[in-house]
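INTERNAL AUDIT FORM
Audit reference: QA-55
Scope: verify that the stored structure record matches its stored sequence.
Auditor: D.O.
Record contents follow.
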Amino acid sequence: MKTRLLATGLALIAMAAGLPGTATAAPRPGAERCDRPAPQPANTSALHHITSGGRDRTYQLHLPDGYRDRRAWPVVLAFHGRGNTGAGTEEFSALSTLPAILVYPNGVVGTGEGNRQAWQGAPYAAPGVDDVAFTRDLLDALETSLCVDPRRVYATGKSNGGGFAALLACEAADRIAAIAPVAGAFYPTGRECRPSRPVPVIGFHGTADVTIPYDGDADRGLPPIRDWTEQWAARDRCRISLPRKEIRPDITISRWIGCARGAEVEHVAVAGGGHTWPGADSYSGGGRTTQTIEAHELIWRFFRAHRLPGAPSTGRVSR
């Protein structure tokens, strides 16, 4: 039943929204270094270390089934929520089933109770930790050690991790092709968001989320989710706001198109949904988890339609 509903929902989304065109870009230095042996077998996950900002940082790396060094693979960065881990996010998100290199970074322990890992931009993040620089360092390392397509690097995340994905769109749009926050915690950072290019955005949020309320939380500086999404549509200079489309009783899709440089903004509202990852089969947060859609599949449908702009590649095959 779940598979049939998912197929129907995806078909309706596709009918309502033709996939936008994509642009190509020149590979970064290091993208051609695809003759090095992979650090682990295909279709496996393993913990890795990297030094950034004078700290030992870690990330969970999953290589897709069929990974070969003769193809330039897309990369999806998936950032955990406060107090979670990369491995925990991999478990509930199903992102590692995608035909891409999946990277699940681990945050630094922040402030407040419980010694919980967090990401830059939140009021409880570790002071002085530059996670944007860490992300750039991580991408540099991945492009050196793996065969990746630097035109197709994407960021998603849940809660605090979703908020950090949005921060990357603001401050690292030269490296991140598109973002997909899930139950995003969009705390004010005190810095204006001025991305170097229009960034495609798809977001997911439950209307009954009590952790990061859909209607916002003024006491914590959290904006209403609809307002935050419309701000991105304005930032991307989208000219057309399409009518909201209810594809299932609990799923409503909003889209903004005609945006600058091929960008697009999409919002998936989950009626009655909690602080959860849509489609998760294990615990991902408090409240109801919809099984009508699979977030990882909609995220991939969106991501694969967008690439960083620029000159054509030198001919390496990409998926």
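Auditor finding: record pair retrieved intact. DSSP finds six helices and 14 strands in the chain.
Action required: none
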